[in-house]
Design a protein that fits this description.
The complex is a heterodimer.
Chain A: H1 2-18, E1 23-28, H2 33-51, E2 55-60, H3 65-78, E3 87-89, H4 94-101, E4 105-106, E5 119-120, E6 123-124, E7 132-145, H5 146-151, E8 172-175, H6 181-194, H7 196-209, E9 210-214, H8 217-226, E10 231-235, H9 236-243, E11 251-254, E12 262-270, H10 276-287, H11 289-296, H12 319-322, H13 343-348, H14 350-362, H15 365-370, H16 380-388, H17 395-409, H18 414-420, H19 422-452
Parallel strand pairs in A: 1-2, 1-3, 8-9, 8-10
Antiparallel strand pairs in A: 3-12, 4-12, 5-6, 7-10, 7-11, 7-12
Chain B: H1 2-29, H2 32-39, H3 42-75, E1 76-77, H4 81-89, H5 96-107, H6 112-119, H7 135-146, H8 148-160, H9 163-171, H10 176-205, H11 208-213, H12 219-227, H13 235-260, E2 276-277, H14 280-308, H15 325-332, H16 336-367, H17 373-381, H18 388-398, H19 411-436, H20 439-447, H21 452-480, H22 484-489, H23 498-505, H24 511-537, H25 542-545
Parallel strand pairs in B: 1-2
Helix pairs in contact in B: 1-13, 1-16, 1-17, 1-18, 3-7, 3-8, 3-10, 5-7, 5-14, 8-10, 9-10, 10-13, 12-13, 12-18, 14-24, 15-24, 16-19, 16-21, 16-23, 19-21, 20-21, 21-24, 23-24
Classes of the chains: A alpha/beta, B mainly alpha.
Chain lengths: 453, 547
């Protein structure tokens, strides 16, 4: 009986799925659920008004930007013509450049309205060939808990290098660059802002100070707010999600002058998108004033988000004067950044740099805490050769490469591993002791028994 | 004929859903080149040793928690005995990764507990409870979750002990301490080792807790990190193969120990020791000790509850504002509402499948005569040795591109995956029922001319009912909060089960409150489930949980 009822429940469940019958759109996105919810809502209203039909949006969640990239790549390897996903929404600019290079994007071919900004602080926002468009922007900086810094008697850090001072050991938060696109960008920015050699020194020192590399970059800002760490790497929206519920001055967001960039956060059609026309409609909507207002307006205001405050930057410069600003209250179009960020370089070495960060900084934190290496793990030119390799590195090559790096990074850690064996030895000894005692007891018992008989 | 069909059906299910996926992964992972890379990598050894040390630390902690508690509660009559015993089982219902959320908030360096200590002037600098390495935090949370397993095992072993042994020792003048050393502890060894290995395996393969603590240098976490990159880096398969080998080894050891250990003093006929009341200062001391421990054990639950009612909590001892908004949002929220529905559908379906499978396998083993039953017995116990993470990893690879592809719709695979993992629990529960109900009754009915359906309806079903219901409730509860398969297989939001929804909510700016509220609700649900399972069978839960 129960079984039939279960089967019935499952069947009903699928029937409910089938009967929807609306137009569909599948979007893969690292954006948090508030952004997904608001844009899905606003777009369905818009679509209903425009075409008189409901639209059903499916969001795919496979994790952060780096995980999405890996997922998309492995899916295209399996079915090269298309993977049943229409749009990639969010993740910065660099991943999109890389996907375009790998020919995994579909040209969107939409006309940008003249009021949409073409560049911010000297950095172009959209793809010149029309493959991807910046839907919003992010600025990279440092979020600090002033209360904790005061109690620790420490000066608030102003630059990336300040985060590496030994006094802050264990008090810095960071996400895992292999999993979070924004964290990867922060490290890439350090490398480009300081240059390869000095950049790696800054990253090594920062890496040694980091409490733990969290999987989700938003957790960094939460940890700062909780007082688990004093300062952390963040983009404006992550910081402002914590800032806004507190009195001003308790948490601060600092942008290192001349050492940070304002970067687009793009959206693009994936190759073989099953619903390209609806996807283009979504693009047009998100770049229109109605779509852009959702990023900026407070909850409940007309044309603004319904339930979640997104506090992100709009790519429409004229909107900043028109609407009340939420978030960190900064107009990115008034910022003068002296750092010219090279997206092509950043995107081409994204994957290998992640492997490098993984081995030498994230996994290699123990080693960093003992001593800071004096030189980068490998010369910049070597990395450039590896990224330009043709054909690209095979999975097995990659495994070998990572293995070689690991062996180099951990060459002094074998003795420590020996130390880690101690508990295992102890347990085995105890078990043997128990077995021995047990055997002795059994022997004694049988002696007593035979004696009594 | 019917028997043959049932046998073939059950075997086919286990082979398709267990042997083939796990086998395929392991086989890919055992490529000599990969194994060589893995074994010569210091990083692999670091993770392996960390995992093993974590499991050792966690099992040791568990035994340290459980042994004194079990001795106290079963040898002495304490005030509020019933309440203590039910609170002791509470941790079992909260998946450790949920308790980690609460603990992480309470114990952070400027968290409520540290602030309280600093306000009262007990310390000047915050105490780093969670430890920079994180291993301690993970081990403590896992131990606080798992100690009921050794506790249940030890209690039931103590209750089975023949009182005459201790009485004889007392008559011969042995002090209580000597009796404990010479009689009680040796007799407890099988229970200690058995439950120790269970905890060890559980901690070794646990994924949720280290993820919430962001402790990365563990085998399970590395497998999780590789799961979405199977085509970019082949090392994931090797890691899975290593994990599978490790678990099989542990399982084999525990089976061997169980087969070898004679049940000494565990007589059914002998008198058991009845608890004695404690007097004077001893009573006070014991009560305080037990209460302190229970306070520690329920700290994570308290933390989760406080988080669920605190929309704003910035560096103060208690939340600044209290609101139950998260609970009302729970059912309207686009993520939690469907996730509860998904989990219920998944759990009901997998429990149904489990019932069918469990009943037919148990019947075949207990009453059947078809050849191949030995194989069936072996296969149906194997899921105990296969961690959810290994199984899910295999499913991802082997079913990609088929109608069962988890990336399109994970529900069928989740149902099947949940079912496979719970086969041993269901089987053990029903098997115990068959063992209790005498075959002679059925034979007698058959002699009097009752047809098989009548026998089933009038004799077997009523006798088995409590066991079946208990097993079903247990399977349902475990499926409701399954973590590792759910995290790996569910990628589309509308198919998220509760655990994945909670994990995803935690990455939202204000998600902690709702995730905690979801945790509290499921906790209540599971508590109800376990309680009714225990009531129905009138039998300690230990019997169901023991490997």
């Amino acid at each position: 009986m129960t079984i039939f009822r279960c089967l019935l429940a499952v069947a009903l469940f699928y029937l409910a799925e089938l009967q929807a019958g609306a137009d569909e759109l599948t979007i893969i996105s690292p954006h948090w659920e508030g952004i997904r919810y608001e844009f899905a809502n606003a777009f369905s209203e818009y679509y209903q008004g425009q075409y008189g039909k409901p639209i059903h949006i499916t969001w795919l969640d496979v994790g952060g930007t780096s995980e999405i990239l890996r997922y998309i790549r492995s899916e295209y390897q399996r079915s090269p013509s298309g993977v049943g996903i229409d749009l990639l929404f969010g993740g910065g600019i660099d991943p999109f450049i890389e996907l375009k290079r790998a020919a995994l994007l579909e040209p969107a071919k939409i006309n940008l309205a003249p009021e949409v900004a073409r560049e911010v602080a000297g950095t172009p926002l959209h793809d010149p060939d029309g493959y991807f468009f910046a839907a919003t922007m992010s600025v990279f900086g440092i979020i600090c808990n002033q209360e904790v810094l005061r109690r620790l008697n420490l000066e608030p850090p102003r630059t990336w290098e300040d985060l590496g001072t030994p006094e802050l050991r264990g008090w810095i938060g960071s996400g895992d660059p292999r999993r979070s696109g924004s964290m990867h960008m922060a490290y890439e920015i350090m490398l480009q802002a300081y240059g390869w050699e000095r950049g790696w020194q800054a990253i090594y020192r920062l890496g040694a100070n980091i409490r733990s590399f969290v999987a989700n970059s938003l957790q960094v800002s939460k940890d700062v707010s909780n007082g688990e760490v004093a300062c952390g790497l963040a983009i404006d929206s992550q910081a402002s999600s914590q800032l806004r519920s507190l009195e001003p001055g308790k948490l601060t967001f600092t942008i290192p002058t001349g050492l940070s960039v304002i970067n687009g956060d793009a959206i693009a059609l994936l190759k073989g998108a099953p619903h390209p026309d609806i996807a283009r409609e979504f693009l047009r909507f998100i770049l229109s004033e109605a779509g852009q207002r959702i990023w900026m307006l407070p909850v409940g205001s007309p044309g603004g988000p319904r339930s979640y405050e997104l506090a992100r930057f709009s790519v429409l410069p004229h909107l900043y004067a028109k609407v009340p600003r939420t978030g960190i209250g900064l107009n990115p179009f008034e910022q003068q950044s002296s750092l010219r960020y090279n997206s092509t370089l950043g995107s081409s070495r994204w994957g290998l740099l992640n492997d490098l960060f993984g081995v030498y900084v994230v996994d290699g934190q123990q080693v960093l805490r003992q001593s800071i290496p004096t030189s980068p793990p490998l010369p910049e030119a070597t990395l450039a050769t590896l990224t330009a390799a043709h054909p690209p590195l095979s999975p097995l090559d990659r495994a070998h490469l990572i293995h070689d790096w690991e062996t180099a990074a951990y060459q002094h850690s074998w003795p420590r591993l020996g130390l880690q064996l101690v508990p295992t030895f102890l347990v085995i000894m105890i078990l043997f002791l128990c077995a021995h005692l047990n055997r002795r007891a059994t022997r004694r018992r049988s002696t007593i028994r035979s004696a009594s008989e | 004929m019917l028997q043959r069909l049932m046998l073939i059906g059950s075997l086919a299910f286990l082979v398709c859903m267990l042997v083939v996926p796990v086998g395929a992964t392991i086989q890919q992972g055992f490529a000599p080149e990969l194994i060589h890379l893995l074994l010569s990598s210091p990083r692999f050894w670091e993770c392996l040793l960390n995992s093993v040390n974590l499991a050792i630390f966690c099992s040791a902690l568990c035994i340290c928690f459980a042994l004194p508690l079990a001795l106290l509660t079963s040898r002495y009559r304490l005030p509020m005995q019933g309440l203590i015993q039910s609170i002791t089982l509470l941790p079992l219902v909260l998946p450790p990764f949920v308790s980690a959320i609460g603990l992480r908030k309470l114990l952070s360096r400027f968290g409520p507990i540290n602030l309280l200590l600093m306000h009262t002037g007990l310390t000047d600098n915050p105490i780093d409870f969670l430890g920079a390495s994180g291993l301690t935090g993970v081990a403590v949370v896992q131990a606080l979750h798992l100690y009921p397993l050794p506790y249940l095992a030890i209690t039931s072993a103590l209750n089975r002990q023949d009182s005459s042994l201790e009485e004889a020792a007392a008559l011969l003048g042995a002090s209580p301490l000597q009796r404990l050393k010479a009689i009680t502890l040796p007799l407890l060894t099988p229970a200690l080792v058995g439950s120790g290995i269970l905890v060890f395996t559980w901690s070794l393969t646990d994924l949720g807790t280290p993820l919430v603590f962001d402790y990365r240098s563990l085998l399970s976490v590395r497998i999780f990190e590789h799961a979405d990159d199977t085509s970019g880096n082949p090392m994931g398969h090797s890691l899975v193969a290593m994990m599978a080998v490790l678990c099989t080894l542990l399982f084999a050891i525990s089976q061997r120990l169980k087969a070898r250990s004679p049940i000494l003093g565990g007589t059914k006929e002998g008198r058991t020791i009845s608890p004695r009341p404690l007097k004077g200062p001893a009573k006070l001391l014991a009560s305080i000790g037990v209460l302190l421990f229970l306070a520690l054990a329920t700290t994570p639950h308290l933390g989760v509850f406080l988080l669920s009612i605190a929309p704003k909590w910035f560096m103060t001892v208690l939340p600044e504002r209290i609101s139950f908004a998260a609970y009302s949002e729970l059912f309207s929220h686009p993520l939690t509402g469907p996730s509860i529905r998904n989990s219920v559908v998944l759990s009901v379906a997998s429990t149904g499948l489990n019932l069918t499978l469990g009943l037919s396998i148990a019947w075949l083993l207990a009453r059947g005569s078809a050849p191949g039953r030995k194989l069936l017995d072996l296969l149906s116990m194997t899921p105990l040795a296969v961690p959810g993470i290994v199984l899910a990893f295999g499913y991802l690879g082997i079913f990609a591109g088929t109608p069962l592809d988890a990336r399109v719709n994970p529900m069928p695979l989740l149902i099947l995956g949940y079912t496979v993992r719970r086969v041993p629990f269901m089987l053990r529960s029903i098997d115990a029922g068959f063992a209790q109900c005498d075959a002679a009754l059925e034979e007698a009915a058959a002699i009097f001319g009752a047809a098989p359906p009548t026998i089933l309806q009038r004799i077997t079903a009523p006798l088995l009912a409590p066991q079946i219901i208990a097993g079903a409730i247990l399977c349902f509860c475990m499926a409701m909060l399954e973590v590792s398969e759910s995290l790996l297989l569910a990628t589309r939001e509308k198919y998220f089960p509760i655990s994945k929804a909670m994990y995803s909510l935690l990455s939202r700016p204000d998600g902690a409150a709702i995730a905690s509220a979801l945790g509290v609700v499921t906790m209540a649900l599971l508590l109800l489930g376990f309680w009714s399972a225990a009531r129905l069978t009138r039998r300690p839960l230990a019997e169901i949980f023991r490997p």
